[in-house]
Specification:
The protein is α/β, with parallel strands linked by helices. Helix content is about 60%, strand content about 10%. It is found in: Cell membrane. One of its GO terms (molecular function) is ATP binding.
């Protein structure tokens, strides 16, 4: 059998060079929240317009109220300046609340969108992708976008509105000083764009390095990873490897932090020096015989100028942040754009009552479209409702692959596979999941209680139903003997239980769902002979009235099957009962003799 783990590791597509299209796609994320964003824009505009009133009030204080001793006007102007501060504060809090709420909703949409996409990906994707890489995209990349998503829209509108309002106010005060103030603005724009490109490049490298570290941590610090590392004496080597990865990440973090710092520092120095330039320019204008500029106008203008450069530089910084975040959005869009091979039919065929007849008609299957050979080829099998089929064969013959096709973990490459005469591709996923239960050779248990793991199959199951399923799987007595019984934590991946106990828990979980079709893929492979016999008795009792397909190497577990199919190189080479196949003295008989030679518990009588 060509196993999916043998396929190459998944690699993302090259970045999309069409930046405008990517920006438009990002903006579409905010489309469902247009009303709230419009309210934010109105609050921002109101806040910006109110804030530029302060310099004009200040000019009147310095040029009129104080020189003329008009205390009433002075009190009124002072009250106006206080009111401006209060209104600006209230508007700021409201716009922050609404914009943060919108940003978090967009983050939620992205997280659930990626998770939903991954839930619908074929099994082959996960066999080619490191778990840490997936976790990094969902947690790290989306988390890294939080500042951009939650504050960028507000920052853009706020700063743009402030810049426009401030420039208009500056022109109203004195156009000559305004020209002097804006001379260096194009230089600032050029610097910020260059810094943004540099930070985008470093951010992309940093996120890839963080994903590599997350994958290494997930693999080496899991229970399996710790056991393997210690028993192989590789703990020190793993630590050194992690240190090297961490060192690379530290270098990238420093690079990301320092990218463009010197250039932005130049902008800061120019900003700090601009008031002196304005005072100097105003002095030259008056000394040269030009129109006099009042002290109040100069002070108000400097105040406006400082108010201009703050939002202008913030606007440039937002542009830098957006460019850096494009790398994160690109990584998320790579997952959102993954092609889904397994799709649910638009109009699924209903199955009111599943009888359980499974039929494979001229089925071919290959894991990769460009694979040299098929994993399964020309498979024709019929499993009548309520009967049992055992599938045997040497390693790599395609047994497990066949078990993947029935619950539609993969789609057939050619031919079709039907349940009660309906192609499984025409069934809703929930219908198929209710009809087909699988107990695989790789048992997975969540880090939760025994009861929670069992109820994963049937969330509304009663305690009595849990106990009945556990008894059927010959595991109730062991669970009842635990200090906390069914509330006992199983540990990560069930490591508090032995291999046989985990498989019996998995069997109980499937029994709880009571599916009409049962797939047992090496379900007793981790059991000792005594436990295997007990579980086999439970399986035989459960098999009554339901269709059972058993994938097994231990031939002693399949001798009573209604049919035994022998696979070799993906083809059904023999089909019959245990006695018929022994009498034929072909592949099956050879397997029996081989297992007898190697000491496997084979029953041939």
């Amino acid at each position: 059998m060509q196993h999916p783990h043998a396929t190459p590791e998944w690699t993302p597509p090259p970045p999309d060079p069409d930046k405008p299209a990517q920006v438009r796609r990002i903006l579409r994320l905010f489309r469902p929240y247009r009303a709230r964003l419009t309210l934010v824009a109105l609050l921002v505009a109101a806040s910006s317009l109110v804030s530029v009133a302060s310099p004009f009030l200040l000019r009147e204080v310095l040029d009129t109220a104080i020189p003329q001793g008009r205390t009433g006007l002075l009190a009124l102007l002072a009250a106006g300046m206080i009111a401006v501060a209060v209104l600006s504060g209230v508007f700021g809090v409201l716009q922050t609340l609404i914009s943060t709420t919108v940003g978090q909703r967009v983050m939620h949409d992205l997280r659930t969108g990626v998770y939903d996409r991954l839930q619908r990906m074929p099994l082959a994707f996960f066999t080619r992708t490191r778990t840490g890489e997936v976790q990094s995209r969902i947690a790290g990349d989306i988390g890294g976008m939080q500042a951009t998503v939650t504050s960028t829209a507000t920052s853009l509108v706020s700063n743009a509105t402030s810049v426009i309002a401030t420039v208009v106010a500056m022109l109203a005060l004195d156009w000559r000083l305004t020209v002097v103030s804006l001379l260096l603005l194009p230089l600032f724009v050029w610097i910020s764009r260059k810094v943004g490109r540099e930070r985008k490049r470093i951010t992309s490298q940093r996120q890839k390095q963080m994903a590599a570290m997350a994958a290494q941590v997930t693999e080496s610090l899991s229970v399996s990873g710790i056991l393997l590392g210690r028993t192989m004496g590789r703990a020190g080597s793993l630590t050194r490897d992690f240190a090297q990865e961490s060192e690379r990440l530290a270098g990238l973090e420093i690079g990301a932090s320092m990218a463009g710092r010197w250039r932005m520092a130049v902008i800061g120095v120019v900003m700090a020096a601009m008031p002196a330039v304005i005072y100097w320019a105003a002095g030259l204008a008056m000394a040269g015989g030009g129109a006099a500029i009042s002290l109040g106008t100069v002070v108000a203008f400097v105040s406006l100028q400082q108010g201009l450069f703050r939002p202008a530089v913030s606007l440039l910084a937002t542009g830098v942040q957006v460019q850096a975040s494009l790398a994160l959005f690109q990584r998320i869009f790579e997952y959102l754009d993954l092609p889904i091979d397994l799709t649910e039919p638009a109009e699924p065929v209903p199955l009111e009552r599943v009888r359980g007849e499974v039929r494979l008609e001229s089925v071919d299957f290959r894991y990769e479209a460009d694979a040299a050979t098929d994993t399964l080829s020309g498979v024709d099998l019929t499993v009548p409702a309520g009967s049992s089929l055992a599938v045997v064969g040497t390693t790599g013959s395609g047994k497990t692959t066949l078990s993947y096709l029935v619950p539609r973990l993969y789609d057939v490459t050619a031919g079709r596979l039907t349940l009660d005469g309906v192609d499984v591709r025409d069934l809703a996923f929930d219908t198929l999941a209710d009809a087909v239960g699988v107990v695989s050779q790789e048992t997975y248990l969540f880090h939760s209680s025994v009861a929670d793991n069992l109820r994963f199959a049937k969330p509304d199951a009663t305690d009595a139903e849990l106990e009945a399923a556990a008894r059927a799987a010959q595991i109730h007595d062991h669970i009842a003997a635990l200090p906390q019984g069914y509330d006992t934590l199983v540990g990560e991946r069930g490591y508090r239980f032995s291999g046989g106990e985990k498989q019996r828990l998995a069997l109980a979980r499937t029994i709880l769902r009571d599916p009409p079709v049962l797939i047992l893929d090496e379900a007793t492979s981790a059991l000792d002979t005594r436990t295997e016999r007990a579980v086999q008795q439970a399986v035989e009792a459960l098999s009554a009235g339901r269709t059972t397909i058993t994938i097994a190497h231990r031939l002693s577990t399949v001798r009573d099957a209604d049919q035994i199919a022998v696979l070799d190189a993906g083809r059904v080479v023999e089909l019959g009962t245990h006695g018929e196949l022994l009498a034929a003295d072909g592949h099956y008989a050879a397997l029996v003799r081989r297992d007898a030679t190697t000491g496997e518990p084979v029953a041939v009588a």
